[in-house]
Amino acid sequence: MTSTLDKPVKAPTFQGVSAKRKLTNNVATVLVSASVLIALVPLVWVLYSVISKGFAAVTSSVWFTNSQAGTTAFSPGGGVYHAVMGTLLQGLVCSLISIPVGVMVAVYLVEYGGGTRLGRVTTFMVDILTGVPSIVAALFIYALWVATLGFERSGFAVSLALVLLMIPVIVRATEEMLRIVPMDLREASYALGVPKWKTIVRIVIPTALSGIVTGIMLALARVMGETAPLLILVGYAASINFDMFGGFMGSLPGMMYDQISAGAGANPIPTDRLWGAALTLVLLIAILNVAARLVAKIFSPKKV
Predict the structure, then answer these.
(1) What is the pTM of this model?
(2) Over the stretch 82-118, which tens digit does the pLDDT of each residue have?
């Protein structure tokens, strides 16, 4: 004999729904769907423009292996190797500073500093930094690093300016991910006698790792496209420079700005280089996002 508990549960049936409620539901569905389509139009348009106009340059045999050294606005050839290396180096140094600082600040705000005066002050300062324009961050680093301390303009100074832009984004994203970790996991760990710091390191952070990595990649994608720190804190070099503490350094945003100055739009050669550098930057960010998703999937908690 089959009991009622063994029978499959059927979907609830709603009867007598008024025509007004059905109309309201349909209108809301249409508005939400239309909003999604409207949001997708500029995104698809931008991607189509960048891919269609930059594809020819990116598919060149020397694009990723050569620099722009020795080329002019009227001489074809050259590649983007120097700009990719400069962008990666600046982003790497920025990430090495920003990620641990941002994650630890978020851990403090969620796990330790809730309701304290220092926690409120930190939250207020993070909110202010979130809205700071990139040119203000660049001017601050110039005044401190170059004018006051006497160091020369360099790629490292650019990374310091990018740190100011990256940290608040990481703090906010990490903070939100840590807050959605169920409190039951923490309490179960405490009940087993696990110290708080080990609970955070072994349970809380791994549970929220996927969202934390996504937030970090969004922050990195934002700073990798900034131009103001490059213009103020380091000059553009068409050749390869791996020295983060001296000399001009190439970068993808810097290359795009240089090609605009060289007559992009009127001259087809710098125009192709401009769109090629833009597509390269988009591809670089896409690759980093895919890699971050894979890392988050590997290290996230496994289902039993």
Answers:
(1) 0.83
(2) 999 999 999 999 999 999 999 999 999 998 887 788 8
